Amino acid sequence: MKLTFFKITKRVLIAVVAVFMLQACDDGLTDINVNPTQADQLDPQFKFTRALLQTSEGRFESWRGNLIHASSMIQHLSSLTTAWSGDRYTINTEYTGAFWNSMYPNAVKTIEDVIAQVEDDPEMVNMYSQARILRVFIYHRLTDFYGDIPYSEAGKGFIEGISNPVYDPQEEIYRDMINELTEAVAALSEGPLTFGSNDLLFGGDIEQWRRFGNSLKLRLGMRMSNVDPAAARSAVESAVNAPGGVMQNNDDIAWVNHVDQSGINRYGVGEVFHDFGLTGHNFALSETFVNILLDAENGNANVDPRLQHIGRVYNADGSVRTANVLEYQGVPNGLMAAEISNNWSLSDADLKPYVMPNREGLVNYDKPNIFQSYAEVRFLLAEAAERGWNVPGDAQTHYEAGIEAAMQHMNLYGFSISDGEIQEYISNVPAADLEQIATQKWIALFLNGYEAYAEWRRTGFPVLTPVNFPGNESNGQIPRRIIYPIQEPGNNRANYEAAVSRQGPDLLTTRMWWDVP
Question: Where do the domains of the chain lie?
Answer without folding.
Answer: 5-246+254-269+473-503, 279-357
